[in-house]
Amino acid sequence: MKKTIIAAFILTTTCSASAIAQTEGFYLGGEFGRGQLKIADTSINEHANNYGIYAGYRFTNWFALEAKISKTADFHHNETIIESYYEYEDYVHSDYTNFKTEFSATSVSLTPTFYWQFNDTFSAFAKMGVSYTSMNIDCQIDNYAVYDGTLDAYGHTHSSDNYDGFSYTLGVGFDSALTESLTLRLSYDYTRVYLENSHVYSYNEDYYDINIDNIKLDTTLSQFSLGLHYTF
Q1: How far is CA 22 from CA 15, 29, 135, 224, in A?
Q2: What is the pTM of this model?
Q3: Is the dihedral of CA 6, 9, 11, 17 positive or negative?
């Protein structure tokens, strides 16, 4: 997907290398690309498509203030854990837990953006600002056992919850004018955020009451996108 996005950007900009960009004013656009989700201290490292809209005001040829809303498709993660294993002569017994998890994230950001205008057509930019991220997690847990070669499913649990948080966001990219008002964009955005869930989960284990409160997920979300915007 990343190679396809870069190839599309290069091909399109090559065909319109003589366009003169409008470097001031309000702009509005949309984007589509590929995102990556990582959660620290877990095996979660998944990819999914992302899309969004962005808008901003370019005050000069080197500075703009930009807002963006982006959303990912579902990230899918599948993991099986061996809970126990017992073998005696020809008899084998093992217990497994399978986790099927779907993640989807929505981010809203506000970033001062700094431009480097190479010529009338091409420019590069870098931005840094604040973002709010909300992530929905949908998890299906299946418990099953293998008794001497026979599979036996004995448990099924389904849960859905939401985590959110504020953090910083970074971004870099290139703009290439197709016409005076229409601009093609290639961009990379990076956000690291501690997503929190303020729910209190309680359960009993070996006669002790255990409470889990304020769960935090050290989450990294990166997005590689191809965008198109119009300057008014």
Answers
A1: 18, 15, 36, 24
A2: 0.77
A3: negative
